[in-house]
Design goal:
67 residues, mainly beta, four-stranded antiparallel β-sheet, 15% helix, 43% strand, globular
């Protein structure tokens, strides 16, 4: 897990910068307004397409991905 600069989408620190340059894709996972959901979105993809999903956490069950 790496943290972003507070006012942007740049990964913090030297290691974060190096990983950002080398990565095939960078995903961001953020809290949603609904406490049972998280937002998963792509910040960078070299080959492929960008996406936005919601992870729905259910008690005792694996999380569900929904668009």
């Amino acid at each position: 897990m790496l943290h972003l600069v507070p006012n942007g989408y740049k990964i913090r620190g030297h290691i974060g910068s190096e990983l950002q340059r080398k990565a095939a894709a960078i995903l961001s996972i953020e809290k949603d307004d609904n406490p049972t959901r998280s937002v998963v979105k792509t910040m960078k993809v070299r080959k492929g397409r960008m996406f936005l999903y919601h992870l729905l956490r259910q008690h005792g069950i694996l999380p569900l991905m929904e668009r």
